[in-house]
Amino acid sequence: MLEVRRVSCYYGKTHVLFDVDIRVGDESVALLGPNGAGKTTLIATIMGMVKPSDGEILFDGQSLREKETHEIARLGIALVPQERELFPLMSVADNLKAGADYIPAARAKSHAQLDLVMGLYPTLARRLHQPAGTLSGGEQRMVAIGRALMASPKLLILDEPSLGLQPSLVTDLYRKLSEMRGSIAILVTEQNVRASLRAVDRGYVLENGRIAFGDTAEGLRHNPHVVKSYLGV
Q1: Number of alpha carbons in the 13 Å side-chain half-sphere of residue 32
Q2: In a 3-state reduction of DSSP, which class is residue 168?
Q3: In CATH, what number is assigned to the domain containing residue 218?
Q4: 92-101 and 110-120 are packed helices; what angle lies between their axes, rounded to 10 degrees?
Q5: Alpha carbons 211 and 31: distance in angstroms, whole number
Q6: Banded model confidence at residue 193, pLDDT cuts 50, 70, 90
Q7: Which among 96, 126, 153 is the end of a domain?
Q8: Are 126 and 219 in a shared domain?
Q9: Among 7, 118, 167, 174, who pairs with 199 as Cys (CB 3.0-4.6 Å)?
Q10: End-to-end CA distance of the chain
Q11: CA-based nearest residue to 75, from 53, 46, 50
């Protein structure tokens, strides 16, 4: 589905990504690593917000390198950004609706997708007419994920979804992501390695702009470097 092949990227004169290779099929994949490793830059590059200096990005065999962000979204990739970026004065319902409004293929499925989102997050059904900016942090994260799902994507990308959430909400977040496994491809970037490895099939570790290694979730949980550097054992 998604193939990132030897992608390098600069911010100005600063070399941020170095020959990065990752692949996401019909599965859930985590991109792990410390703050500043280049995870968000890689996501921005996949979404066309940053252009690679070298390498190739393919989605369903089609190159994304010269495409703009709205074109990439219409191909079937939806992003849940790190900062949620909701419309705070708009209702929850209107925020969710915005996820499908600009994706022609998703508009016809919007009622079915809304039912799916309400099934995942019943709390939102009681908040549909409430301004999104009045919700708690955890509820806003639900809206952001729900809005992305309204686009009926083939691939859902989540950038640091647990950032700023209390531990109980992180547990609930990853339980919901685990429930989605098999129904949609997922790529999630995380510093919270322990939580994310419970909800994915495979993962890559990105350090200093380079892929250090990749393995199954089980393999990463028992990798000595991961255990020492990220699991606090």
Answers
A1: 30
A2: helix
A3: 3.40.50.300
A4: 130
A5: 9
A6: confident
A7: 153
A8: no
A9: 174
A10: 35
A11: 46
Same domain assignment for residues 68 and 91: no
As given in the structure block, the two tokens for residue 137 are: 């942090």
**Alpha carbon distance 69, 102 (integer Å):** 12
Domain carrying residue 54: 1-76+154-233
pTM of the model: 0.91
The yes-or-no verdict on residue 233 having pLDDT over 60 is: no
Q: State the Cα angle at 11 between 8 and 12, rounded to 5°.
A: 120
How does pLDDT run across 141-184, given as a tens digit for each residue? 889 999 999 999 999 999 988 877 777 778 888 888 888 877 88
| CA dist., res. 88 & res. 130, Å (int) | 10
Query: Which of 126, 153, 180 is at the close of a domain?
Result: 153
Q: What is the DSSP string of 100-115?
A: HHT-HHHHTTHHHHHH
d(CA 80, CA 147): 8
CA angle 96, 160, 210 (to 5 degrees): 135
Q: Write the Ramachandran bin of 208: left for phi over 0, alpha for psi from -120 to 50, otherwise beta.
A: left
